[in-house]
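FAQ: What does a ligand-bound record look like?

Like this one, built around FE2/S2 (inorganic) cluster:
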Amino acid sequence: MIAHANKPKTFFVKILRQDGPGKPSYWERFELDYEPELNVISVLQKIAAKAKTANGQKTTPVCWDCGCLEEVCGACTMVINCKVRQSCSALVDKLLEDGREIELRPMTKFPVVRDLFVDRSRMFNALKKVKAWIPVDGYYDLGPGPKQSRDAQEMAYPLSECMTCGCCVEACPQYSKIELLQHSGESKDAYEARKTEVFNRNFVGPAAISQVALFNLNPTGKMIASERLDALTEEGGIQVCGNAQNCVAVCPKKIPLTMSIARMGRETTFNTLRKWFDRRGDSKH
Ligand code: SF4
Ligand code: SF4
Ligand code: FES
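The answer part, i.e. the structure of the complex:
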């Protein structure tokens, strides 16, 4: 916390702005009156309402994404003073301990929609690719499901806290930005299909690998464990991970990502070997 005597009267916020997908980015600087206990979202609300830069020029309201405001949805993730984190839990008093300016940039691994608002759809596509759900074949009463052991519950709970925020992929050297713009004359469906095809060929990222670990631990989810492991063995799968371990260091939920990656690495190997032996067994009959 800033000591009472050291409170600045005003502080500056420098924002890397972009007017739309594929457009050039530019910096704008804003000056705000200091108030105690602000978070970065409340600062952005003040900047958007004022829409005037520090040198008095009128500008457009800054755009950002947010939802829960309590570090649960992951939507407000951005790069704040060079560190990827959620803006709803980033406190101004703490950020100003190192100076009178706060720097905000959009995450660099996702296409910018506008300003600090990025398109994380590649992460949701990865969850679809690895089938990160429990398959049920209807909504009628199926009776009690199989029980999960206490050990499995304790292993699964931390993995279930993932909010698809993107911090892990922002830090991952193996995860490169993919930005595909819609061609003129290309239909929305064709554009979405082209994006899905490219996303599926590129690295799924640590969060999706960890979700395979979570759903394969579930007694009902296990039914399609092999399909999830197959998805992790395809192009863009777990073999792309270079084990740099940056992901685990930045996860705000402290998810043991490298443990998940190591476990899924072993399981994908067993899965491939088991299928190979099954095929050999079949061909002998
Ligand atoms: S694993 Fe952690 S850093 Fe990655 S998306 Fe989930 S919550 Fe965010
Ligand atoms: S351990 Fe793998 S997934 Fe995590 S940052 Fe390194 S390369 Fe990326
Ligand atoms: S608004 Fe949901 S995590 Fe910040």
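Follow-up question: can I read anything off the structure? Yes, for example: The beta strands are 10-18, 25-33, 77-80, 83-86, 101-105, 112-114, 117-118.
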